[in-house]
Amino acid sequence: MELKFNNRDPVYRQVIQYFKIQIAKGTLEPGEEIPSRRELANKLKINPNTAQRAYKEMEEEGLIFTEGNLPSRVTKDKQVLRAVREELIMEATETFIQTMHAINVSLDEVVQRVTDNYQSHLEEGEKDDRS
Amino acid sequence: MIEVKNIKKNYGRKQVLKGVSFTANKGEITCLIGVNGVGKTTIMNAIMGLTPINSGEILIEGKQLDKTSYEKITFIPDAITMLPQMKISDAMAFMNDYYQCWNQKRANDMLKFFRLEKESRISELSKGNRAKVNLLLGLALDVDYVLMDEPFSGIDIFSREQIAEVFTSHLIENRGVIITTHEIHDIEHLIDKAVLLDDGVIIKEFNAEEVRENEGKSIVDVMREVFRV
Fold first, then answer.
1. Residues β-bridged to residue B32
2. Which domains are present in chain B?
3. Using CA atoms, how far apart are residues B141 and B136, in angstroms rounded to an integer?
4. Which segments of A11-104 are extended strands (E)?
5. Measured between alpha carbons, how far is A3 from B6 in angstroms, rounded to an integer?
């Protein structure tokens, strides 16, 4: 588990964002067991109270659940899982469009750029797979 | 909770603590930050009753310090106080004789955790390993509060990393920890509360996550503001 934190955003939020990305990517599967709060603090080198806070918030958001004394798990709720992916995409799109808008890039150019860039990323990905 | 209330301390004519107040909670890591010579160690000594204060008071769980306080709280100085010719096992035996709250099992766990050999002589250890033994001797006591003076000072990066790991482990679980440091860089994400000290007064006391959340500032950002560097 490698995660570079920035020092200016609340660490607990960065932890939640990290979990959301893992869930959206499928690295963390629905129902999969996640580390204990203590293990997480240890792995990420963060304050145990911060890890606790992140888990509490994720539990409240329905992202993870805990039954009795068992380890916490990723939710199996399809609606929540879909919402996680949706939220990540919305956030990234919003930031991107704002930047494009601020420097007056037309919608046509945005679309063209996105298409080209996406394509070259795919090709790079294939190259990486072969090497 | 440890409550430090308006403590003042003079050394001769020089006032080193000019009315210091802050609190440190159980289950949290509180960090006293300030440049060298600003009074951090004096505060630690005052909490431990090792140095008399001229005024103010210090409470632990609402009560003034007395002889039984030393079964609740321990101080780990910035350098090991055991004799260099002692083996680690001798130092452990000494602590066992001296303190009722010595926890042999935890001490053995920590030996493993730090990958130290019981039969090594303190004089033969690297600076980093000596710092680990020093920490071990304090943390193996079953006390509610642990005070550590500059645990990261003057040791190699790998030892620093290993010591930082203590702060995320069960070794400090449910305890209150106060550490002093003049170097926050490695431990920004490890501490709950920062207490900034300058020239014998507390200039700011804050929860690190709250400042990140409400002001978008890192601990170092806040330090830069208040220390005006």
1. B180, B195
2. 2-227 (3.40.50.300)
3. 9
4. 64-65, 73-74
5. 41
Q: Does A41 touch chain B (CB under 8 A)?
A: yes
Q: What is the pTM of this model?
A: 0.87
Cβ burial, residue B123 (10 Å; 0-12/13-18/19+): exposed
* Best residue in B177, B212, B224 for a mutation probing chain A (most A CBs within 10 Å): B212
Token match 């609606």: residue? A79
Rounded to a whole number of angstroms, the distance from the CA of A19 to the nearest CA of chain B is 18
Query: How far is B140 from B109, CA to CA, in rounded Å?
Result: 9
Complex prediction ipTM = 0.84
Nearest to B176 by CA among B74, B48, B65: B74
H or E element that contains B106: helix B104-113
CA of residue B140 relative to chain centroid, distance: 14
**pLDDT tens string B101-116:** 999 999 999 999 999 9
Residue pLDDT, tens place only, A100-110: 999 999 999 99
- What CA–CA distance (Å, rounded) separates A107 from A101? 9
> How many residues appear in chain B?
229
Contact A9 B209 (CB under 8 A): no
The amino acid at residue B136 is L
Instruction: Measure in Å the smallest separation between the Cα of B169 and chain A Cα atoms.
Output: 6
The Cα–Cα gap between B24 and B27 comes to: 9
Burial B124-134 (b: 16+ CB within 10 A, else e): ebeebbbbbbb
- Three-state DSSP at A128 gives helix
pLDDT one-digit tens code per residue, B34-74: 887 788 999 999 999 888 999 999 999 999 888 778 789 99
| Cβ proximity of B143 and B72 under 8 Å | yes
